[in-house]
Amino acid sequence: MRLDQFIASTTPLSRKEAKRAITRGRVIVNGRACRQVSTHISTDARVALDDHLLTLPGERYLMLNKPEGVVSATTDSDHPTALDLLPTSLRHGLHIAGRLDADTTGLLLLTSDGQWSHRVTSPRVKCPKTYRVTLCDPVTEGALQQLRDGIELRNDPKPTKPAEVRWLNDYEIELTIAEGRYHQVKRMLAATGNRVSALHRSRIGTIELDSTLAPGAFRELTEAEIDSIA
Ligand code: URA
To answer: How is domain 61-224 classified at the CATH fold level?
Structure first.
């Protein structure tokens, strides 16, 4: 984790205030003043702000390969939830950073760190999400162009922001969007006159779904993956 991120998650300081505190020499790392905001903080580092030792927050960050039929919720009496797929010892305090519909599969991020998940989901941060979209009817050139230009959704006054679209074959496209409207991908394709038959999220920002994770399996994020959500 970067020093400024560490300070922002262990103190009430914002990321900007943390950077200022670091550059002003208020932060001591392993006994020495450290003015470099991007310094990498290892898990055994001793970090102090104004002579107060800061303890590592013990935040957790996981990726899960969400199977079909599992709901993106922490509790649901009728359906299995993403949290039900984790061992009980890991579940406490985790929440989902960016939900998926029950019938959507793929990359789901879970964390105990509210600031981090806010950066994943906030429309202001514009963290891109990439989906493999399987369609009921062959995709047309016109539809690809509509998605790239931005498209009007039913019951939504604002058109979508221009999306990145990659044609994979007649029935499949890869779509990257940085908004998170309700059922957005399905509604975008519906607005082109098509229908989504399967939806799979493969990437959030630069975090790729680990291809070694079977549906239902999870792993902790690496430090590089955690830091990539900035
Ligand atoms: N868009 C959708 O329509 N469904 C999802 O699960 C994610 C994005």
So the answer is: Pseudouridine synthase (3.30.2350)
